[in-house]
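Milestone 3.1: sequence recovery, worked example.
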């Protein structure tokens, strides 16, 4: 991710890496990202992709912040894993502020 102090829009590239599955197949992944207060996000990712091969995606960010103010909320990344007949799993993590 490259940030420019005079811009309110930026893009982040990410990869959900190749997964080695043992006695598990057909697990699908969805990715969502929250930008925190004052930031809208748009995730482009092949939602519902089957785990195995690596999948690339992007997150577009658009901030709304007053002049000489700063945003202090971290981005929140949520990964959800599904497989028919099984309980949904997943995890969330926050970026640095």
């Amino acid at each position: 991710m490259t940030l420019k102090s005079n811009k309110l829009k930026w893009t982040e590239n990410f990869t959900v890496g190749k997964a080695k599955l043992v006695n598990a197949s057909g697990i699908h992944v969805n990715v969502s990202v929250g930008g925190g207060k004052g930031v809208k996000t748009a995730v482009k990712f092949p939602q519902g992709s089957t785990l195995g091969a690596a999948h690339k995606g992007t997150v577009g960010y658009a901030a709304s912040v007053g002049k000489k103010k700063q945003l202090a909320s971290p981005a929140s990344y949520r990964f959800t894993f599904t497989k028919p007949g099984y309980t949904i799993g997943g995890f969330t993590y926050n970026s640095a502020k």
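The mean pLDDT is 89. The radius of gyration is 16 Å.
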